[in-house]
Design brief:
single chain; alpha+beta; 33% helix
Length: 252
C-alpha cells in the first residue's frame, strides 16, 4: 500500500509541471459556439457532436489509451457494472494527449458555452475527473444510474469516443441510453470521434452490454462550476470511486 503522504506529494509534483507537459499536446479543437446546442442542452441536459478532432489526433489518443489497457482496473458489481478503467494518475503519467484534451482551455470555453456556466476541471484526487473506460469483454456494461455530484457547483460529464468496434465490423453493440422526462428511452449515437456532454446528476443513463469481440474506449471527463466540496461529500466520492478504481481510491 502506498502511504497517503506519498500519494499527495506525487500528485502535487505532477500538478506543478502539468502546464508545461500538456502545452506540447494541445488538441486542435475548434468547434464553434452554437446557440442551438446551448438551447438543446438547456432543454434536455445533453448534447452530442461529431467529428471533433482531426483523424490523426484521435488515432494518437486512442494509441495512448490502448497502451494503458494492461494497467487498467477491472471492476465488476453484479447487476450494476462490468468493465475496465484507466485512472487519472495513470493518464497523467503515460497519456499526455488525453491529459491535454481534458485540460485544454479551448475545450473548457466550448463546454462552458454549451452548459451556460463557466466550468473548471475537478480535483486531481477525484480519480473520475479523467479516466479511460474500456469495454472489451462480452457483457461489459453499466446499468441505469446518475452521476452523483459531490461538489458545490453544477457537475458535468463529458465523453469522447476513442474507439467503438465490433468483431465483424461496424460499431460496438454497446450503446449509451438515456431516459427522458417522460420516462422514455433514447439512444445517443456514439461513433468514434463523438463528444457527448451531459449533466449527470439530472440525466439517468446507462451503457448497454457489449457483444463478443467488441472493443470500446471512452475518454471520460468531469467538470464543475465550483470544485469545492464538504467533508461528508468527499468521503462519499471516495467510496464511489472504489467501484471504478478499487479500494486504493479510498486513500488516493
Amino acid at each position: 500500500m502506498i502511504a497517503p503522504a506519498t500519494v499527495t506529494r506525487g500528485r502535487a509534483t505532477r500538478a506543478s509541471d502539468r502546464p508545461a507537459r500538456v502545452a506540447q499536446y494541445a488538441p486542435t479543437f475548434r468547434l464553434p459556439v452554437d446557440p442551438v446546442l446551448t438551447s438543446t442542452f438547456q432543454t434536455g441536459s445533453l448534447i452530442a457532436v461529431y467529428d471533433v478532432l482531426p483523424p490523426g489526433e484521435l488515432r494518437a489518443m486512442r494509441a495512448e489509451a490502448e497502451a494503458g489497457v494492461p494497467r487498467m482496473t477491472h471492476s465488476y458489481l453484479p447487476g450494476h457494472k462490468k468493465g475496465y478503467t484507466l485512472s487519472y494518475e495513470e493518464i497523467d503519467r503515460s497519456a499526455p494527449r488525453c491529459l491535454a484534451f481534458y485540460h485544454a482551455d479551448a475545450v473548457h470555453r466550448w463546454i462552458s458555452s454549451v452548459v451556460g456556466v463557466r466550468v473548471l476541471v475537478t480535483p486531481d484526487k477525484d480519480q473520475s475527473s479523467l479516466s479511460v473506460l474500456c469495454y472489451r469483454e462480452a457483457g461489459d456494461h453499466i446499468n441505469w444510474h446518475y452521476d452523483h455530484n459531490f461538489y458545490r457547483g453544477r457537475h458535468f460529464t463529458v465523453l469522447l469516443v476513442l474507439a467503438s468496434e465490433a468483431r465483424a465490423g461496424g460499431l460496438s453493440a454497446c450503446r449509451l441510453m438515456r431516459r427522458d422526462a417522460a420516462g422514455g428511452e433514447r439512444d445517443v449515437a456514439m461513433p468514434p470521434n463523438a463528444l457527448v456532454v451531459f449533466e449527470g446528476a439530472t440525466v439517468r443513463h446507462k451503457a448497454t452490454p457489449t457483444a463478443e469481440g467488441d472493443h470500446r474506449l471512452i475518454l471520460s471527463m468531469t467538470y464543475c462550476s465550483d470544485p469545492r466540496t464538504r467533508r461528508f461529500h468527499e468521503f462519499a466520492r471516495r467510496v464511489k470511486d472504489t467501484s471504478f478504481h478499487g479500494l486504493r481510491a479510498l486513500w488516493h
